[in-house]
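Problem: given the chain below (212 residues), write out its structure.
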Amino acid sequence: MAGLNPGLCDWLDAQSLSDLQAWKAQPVALAKAVSQWLPEAGELLALCEVTESEGGQFDCDSHWSTGVPGRKWEQISAFNRALPYSPGKRWLEWCAGKGYLGRILAVTREADVTSLEWQDALCVEGQAYATKHKLPMRFVQGDAFASESKKLVDECDHAVALHACGDLHVTLLRHFVAAKAESVTVSPCCYHLIHGRQYQPCRQSPSSRHWY
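Solution.
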């Protein structure tokens, strides 16, 4: 990377952790600061703006937030409001944890949700909540990197992933393109948590239908 843009790398190396936190809270200022190396920074920032659904039809009653940390509930609620309308009832929650997002999808989208999660204890707890509250959720304990997980993408109408780190969200996107599924929506993070030495950006395949 240094060979591609040494000036930007030097600037980043000079930033302290507190500087980085400040830049994170001021994306417009950050885009302006790095525009001398990345002239398209402003355009990239504009692409990050997400329009929420109108009329609040996908707002969810806060009593479904039981057990969900406050900030995570805010993130899940915002993610759900930003999801496009999808007529399909078969939703896949990728890297689900306890299924906090899945329960909101089941309630607001009247969807049948399959929640894939690696940790068995989280699956058990999530399924117990769903069963108790009669939510149409099915937890599947499995490895998102395993080839068997692709079948879940093949069978869904809309796949979602909120904070699926590194290659976890990349794997979902690749499965989605291969399956030619209806829709996929991801809010990725931790791009550095990958198997390879260098992150490889993704691009939308012409064969895919909806990619958010």
